[in-house]
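[job 0412] stage=fold_complex status=start
inputs:
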Amino acid sequence: MITMDLLAINFSLGLEKLLLIGAIITFSLIVAMYTTYAERKVAAWMQDRRGPNRAGPFGLLQPAADGLKLFFKEEIIPLTSNKTLFVLGPALAMITAMLTSAVIPWGSSIELFGRNISLQIADVNIGILYVFGVVSMGVYGIMIGGWSSNNKFSLIAAVRGASQIISYELAMGLSLIALLMMTGSLSLKTIVQQQMEGGWNIIYQPLGFLIFLICVFAECNRTPFDLPEAENELNFGYHQEYSSMKLGLYLFAEYVNMFISSAVVSTLFFGGYDIPFVDETALSLSLGANTVALLGFAALFAKILFFLFLFIWVRWTIPRFRYDQLMDLGWKKLIPLALANMLITAVVILWLNK
Amino acid sequence: MASLTNRAKVLEQKPMSFMERLYLPAIFKGMAITFSHMFKKKATINYPEEKRPFSPVFRGLHVLNRDEEGRENCTACGLCAVACPAEAITMEAAERKTSEEHLYREEKYAAKYEINMLRCIFCGLCEEACPKDAIYMSETFAPSNFTRKGFIYAKDELLIPNPVTDKEKYEIAKGLREAQLKNK
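[job 0412] stage=fold_complex status=done
writing structure:
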């Protein structure tokens, strides 16, 4: 009976998930679009300028104008490039950026048409491992783009990007092991539910959070770790030979990555869709489960917006690392720190359980 | 070695303290500075809608003046061309005929008068050299153009509108400076 149940195709569930996937992808694309706007606006404010204010009220149509411009540009594929890989590069960058959103719990669950719809595409019990797997795949977008361009600068950028992401992934993984020892679960939903009851993980793992945040900056290729695209030394690095919407996809993938990483950081350390200082179960009795789920989503979104602002804020404050400093920080500072954090957490857990 | 001046300073090169080597405090300080700048007065303005006033001595595009009867002041003496350090001014003189007395103030006039705005450095020496108050510099600057030829301004572009036939435009061309001077 159980096998039959597993094999039977549940069409309404499929439709529900498909709609959810569509909604989340559209949502992340729109947020990424307006992150580009926010980036330019915040950069301008921090430099005492005004920022884009010509297209539409307050320049709100600027991202649309930018996108339209990219679509109208001539598509150039260099003669000496590997054409298949050249097209695959930006597609891969975008796909990997999107894939992570599948395991993030965007809210608790809502009741619609008599169905209980969970606001998470897939509650995989190895959610964090999945995130790590997909994030490591993100390096292929850079590698393939840089390699297939058949250009020295792009190749240097690709090698830089690959070594950077691999180095920082180690520290990232190690910093999360301490967190996982506390939660005892790899499922992101379970981690959020634990935080709703026992307080946010940032309280217990401040050092782990700091290491994780630095690694997230490095994984997203954001300043101060933007060595793979370094405008002034590598001429935009791995996307130098790209034009038109292929370039757009690369640039856009960076912003989608930022959005998704912000969501992961808020989920792991800042309680995900937990509304701070509010008891959700008591609230859902008075307001109804659907309202509370939407409020929870709003809380998550507010946290994500804060981290997006942090990304932009840091970018317009700190200059870029030199390459040896980058490697020094990754291997000699962050990894030992993460190991020490792991050890201390383990000792404390053993102490408390005794 | 004795120092050449008494202002020489010995450079301190102490190794960085632990707090400095952490970098994070310095980064937070920097972030506080950038954050505070978000609320400061903007250095830029919304240009086409808002314009900064020029100083009263601003030297802009040249204008060839007329007297109150609408006659051209210029007598093509060539002093402005001689004074011009950039050699931007060329002119050709002609003699006034008896039927042209309402057009030119004196017997000699400039049949051709050209200023190359790409050569001009807007120093204002032509304005100073002119004995007839025929050339002065206005408050506007040369608009952009697609060709170099478009920057060579001939008499039709330089002459001020006729105060007798086109009083309104003449007043505009005279500009704010005159009005401000009158108010003072």
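[job 0412] summary: Strands of chain A lie at 109-112, 115-118.
[job 0412] exit 0
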